[in-house]
Each structure stands twice: as C-alpha cells, then as structure tokens.
Amino acid sequence: MTAVRLGVGEFAFPGPLRDQLVAAILDGTKTTTTGLVDDYERDGEPLPRPGDREVVIDSAGEPVTVIETVAVRLLRLADVNLEHALGEGEGYASVADWRAGHEAFWHSDQMREYVGDPAFTVGDDTEVVALEFRVVAGEDQDLHALLRQARHQDGDPAPAGPRPPALIPSTTRPLPLAVAAKGARIFDESGLDYIDGSSGPLAVTLGHGHPRVLAAIASQFSTVDYVHRTQFRNPAAERLAGLVTERLGGGLDHVMFVSSGSEANEIAMKFAHLYWAAQGRTDKHRFVSSSVSYHGNTAGALSASGQPRYAAPYRPLVRAGETITAPQVYRLPVPVGSTAAAECITRLRAEFAQLDVRRTAAVLFEGVGGSGSGVLVPPPGFLEELRRLCDSYDVLWISDEVMSGFGRTGKWFAFQHSGAVPDIVTFAKGAGGGSVSLGGAALSDRVWDQIRGVYPAMSAGHTFTNAPLACAAGIATIEVLEEERVLDRVAARGAWLGGRFRALPEEFPFVGDVRGLGYLWGLEFTADPATAAPPAPALDITAKAVAAAAASRLIVYPARFCVDGTRGDAVLLGPPLTATDEELDELLTRLRATLDTLSPLFPEVAYQR
C-alpha cells in the first residue's frame, strides 16, 4: 500500500487573501483548488495524488486544519471547469472574474519575484492541476505536531534550501524592513509609510525621532556615557528620580531604574519580598495576579502573569501562581439592581478570602490591562477595594504601569484615575520616549523605610541599572510631556478617539467591545454580537487582524486569548502621544480598511454598509 503523503497547504501568499481562503475551507464552502504544474516542478515536489493530506496554515504560519485530496486532474488552464469555484468564498461573480483575479495574482510582482522570472506569464495552454479535497482534521489531532511532521517527515533530512538568517526571527509572519521613522509613521525599504497605531508595543511616547530625546542622549554621551551604579553616582539618574517621584505623588518617593518592564516587575517582586524578610517573615514570597494579566517575559515575571499563553512554551521552568479573576465587564452577567463594578468588587472580596495570604508578598495588578486582556480598565471603586483588602490581609499592592504609565491614559499613571495609592509602582516602555530602553520601580516611604533598616542598599540590579544615557532620555521625555501639555491633549483627543472607536460596531458588528482610556484602546472581536461569543480559537482572528492591518499599512498590537487564556481575539491601538490630527485621521482610515478586509471572516454577522 502506498504511504499517505503529508504536506503543508499554503493557499496564496500570507495576507488577507490566504486568510479568506482558509476561512472558506474551515466553513466548508471551499473544496477545490487549482495550481500550476510549473510550481510543483520548480519546488521539486511530486504532483498530488488522491489520499495525500496537507496541514493548512494561515498567514501567521499557524496550522488550522488538515485536508485530504479526493480527486486530481491534469489539464490546460482553458479546459478547467470553473463554475464550481464561484460559490467557494472567494467572491467571484463569474468565471471571467475568477480568471481575471487569478491571472492578476499569477502575474503579480510578488509571484514573479517568487518564481524568479520577471517575464513569468500564464495563458490558456498553461498546464494546471485541479484538485478536489475534503477536511479531515478532528478535535483530537495535534495540528502543531502534524505540521512538524509535514515539514520533516519521519526524520528524513529537510530539503536543501537557503540558510536561515543570522538574526533569530520574532514571528513567522513576513515583515517589511524599516528604514526610517518620524512622528507616528514608519517607512519601509520601498518607501511605503505605516501608521504606528500601537506605538510599537505601546512604547513610543513622543513619536519616532523626537529631536529633544536625540539631543539629550547626545549631550549625555558627550559628558558621561556610562558609569556603574556601585562605583559612581550620576546626575541624570538622580534628577530623573526626583522628576518621577514628584509625578507619582502619594509618598512613592524612592525609585530604581532598570532597562525593561520585565526587569521592573522582577525588581519590584524582590523589593516586596525584602519588605517582609526585613520583618522576619520570609515565608511571604508568593505573588498573586489577575487571571489574564501579563507582567513580563523573564522567568519571575512570567510566573506572576495570569495570562497562560505567554508561559506555555516554558513549563516547567515557569510556575503559575495564584490569581484573582480579572474585572472584565464585557460578557459579565449583572443581576437586576446591581452594577458591573459592584459584581467585580463582590467577587474580588470572595476570592481574596481564599488566597494563601500567609505566604503572599504582594498582588500585582496592571493600572490598565494590556496585551493579556485586550485592554482592561478597572471599574469604578475596584482599585480602592483592592487597596483596602491588601491592607486588611497584610499584603502589598504592586501597580504595573509598564504599559499604562507616562501619560498613556491622560494621567501620569493609570492608578491616579482612582483614589487609591499602591505600595510599589513599576513603569517602562514609554518612560524613555520609546527611543531608549528605560524602566523602573518606585517604592512608598513605608516599604523603603522597612527594607533599608536591614538592607540599606539594593544589591539586585543589572549592568544598565540607573544608566546615564537612558535616564537622560527619561528626563527629556518628561520635559516634553509637560512643556507641550501632552497629557491634556491625550485626555481630550483620547476621548475623541474613543468615540470614533466606539462607533465602529455599528458598521462592523463583529467588533464586539471597545474599551480604553486616553491613547490606550482595545477592540475585541465577536462571532455573534447577540451573545458576545468569541470567535473559534482555530481561526486565530487576532493574527489575521494584525496581518490585515499591516496590509493596510497600519500597525496594531495583538491580544489573543483575552477572554480566559484559551479564547478571545483582540487588538490594541495606542498611537504616540504626540500624534497629529492628520495622523489620527489616517489611523482611523486605515483601521476601517482593515475591518473591511476582516469582514468576510464573519459570514454569520450582518455587515452594515
């Protein structure tokens, strides 16, 4: 018996067209495909035969299903019966439209570059292979394992090909090459501009290439470029410490600077442990976080993150801690006479009572949730109740402001929208304007006074802790934010931007929820607006949304599995705080184009036009 061959099914190039075809395969409307014989010969692949199977991948390179070839025909392009293709989800109204669309694809610059022939053409006499297939994937199949097998069957040597690049990739999605950036725009090697609609990962506070930050770095470099914190003090770090603590207020008067948000949360966890250790309570070394939180990519920060998808590849190196349910109000059942905020607070009290507080050093809670939750704004009164419970149960509160700090929500720090003050605040991302890696942890007088009685200096740190160049960038960032009254603009234009975002579900009902503050917004998708049901996880709508936005030259940030760690698709939007009105308008235009592209993936949702 001939062995079943297993290959990788790549429909079109990565992008909206591929995702549209994959969606049609998943819902059963697409059961045929037509390929060029030349493609098989060029790639050194045998022609398909009945019984062959392929693991179908989407634009993100993720496996979504398995198909099996049912019938194969080899014929001229002119002899292909295309009537069956008209109802297969590609949107063609006639055979002529199908032929024109496919010829445009086959004759595209991308295809000609792929085949290495600038004169590549397809005509009536071109040999094609017409396939019929069926979906055979079951729920019990490990699609990732099948994909690995398809790419490297039974331990056979992988086919020869170009060596992978020296730089290890961060995503399987093809990326443009950035060659310039200014304001809210990034330019690729072709000269195309992209609106940085998410400030990278919500980090570019002052826009790209701000002259004040550049000047501050150059000036600092010309005087003292680097000194180690155990060998010298440096004026930039000491001045920045004063500026940050003044804007924090609430007695948060002591700060240490590091190089990232992950480091900031790690150092905050160490401070929290030392606070209790200084009292002889070394058993208080555990940390509690909310159920879909994200606090960083180092081992300790991952362990303290409630969102499981970040730590999944690294088990058992990373050990999950206790969690409290994130105060998500979308989909939350609210009894008559109650409010969403009241329900979240009641649940918080009940869950706090079940925590192992005897061994808990602190609760980590994001000022506004980010990529783990698809933006989560604590409901009114929630942080005040968290403060009360921490005091009552003898637990510290660490407010993670890595994404939400430095003006992102219209306040210096997001906790300042409430009447509660944390014991420790962490920050990063936009602290250096988005140009230099800078983070930090600020401690209250109570916490630092307790620690310094036993540990008068903090030995934990890194090579670039309190680094002069980064601190100079931080000083310039604060000066620009204040001199240009940027926070006032973020508060005002953020409300305007939020209004435009909140109007989107009327036109695109698959946008189920819009939430945020200032210039930090999340758009969550739904398969059914009536029930708020999230899309099927296998569709990976988040990856498709990121790819569709990139095709519209808009950068958004992913927030997959934002519901409960296994379901939920959302993207984050947060332009630079200095974005102009023209850049904000262009963001909205490209966002609408993105949603237009995504609409065929939601065939059951009414599409208003």
What's the structural blueprint in terms of helices and strands?
Blueprint: E1 6-9, H1 16-26, E2 32-36, H2 37-43, E3 53-57, E4 63-76, H3 95-106, H4 109-115, E5 127-135, H5 143-151, E6 178-182, E7 185-188, E8 193-195, H6 199-202, H7 211-223, H8 235-248, E9 254-258, H9 261-277, E10 286-290, H10 299-303, E11 323-324, H11 340-352, E12 360-366, H12 382-393, E13 396-400, E14 424-427, E15 439-443, H13 445-452, H14 468-483, H15 486-502, H16 504-507, E16 511-517, E17 520-525, H17 541-551, E18 557-558, E19 570-573, H18 581-598
Parallel strand pairs: 1-3, 10-11, 10-12, 12-13, 13-14
Antiparallel strand pairs: 2-5, 3-4, 4-5, 6-7, 7-8, 9-15, 14-15, 16-17, 17-19, 18-19
Helix pairs in contact: 7-14, 8-14, 9-13, 11-12, 17-18
What does the largest sheet look like?
Answer: 7 strands, mixed
CATH architecture of the largest domain: 3-Layer(aba) Sandwich
User: Overall pLDDT, averaged?
Assistant: 90
CATH fold annotation of the largest domain: Aspartate Aminotransferase, domain 2
CATH top level of the largest domain?
Alpha Beta
Low-confidence stretches: 154-160
Distance between the termini: 55 Å
Strand order of the largest sheet: 9-15-14-13-12-10-11
> Could you tell me the radius of gyration in angstroms?
27 Å
Quaternary structure classification? single chain
- Which superfamily, in CATH terms, is the homologous superfamily of the largest domain? Type I PLP-dependent aspartate aminotransferase-like (Major domain)
Total tally of structural domains = 3
Helix content: 25-40%
Portion in beta strands: 15-25%
Q: Would you report the number of β strands?
A: 19
Q: Structural class from helices and strands?
A: alpha/beta
How many distinct helices? 18
What is the global morphology? globular
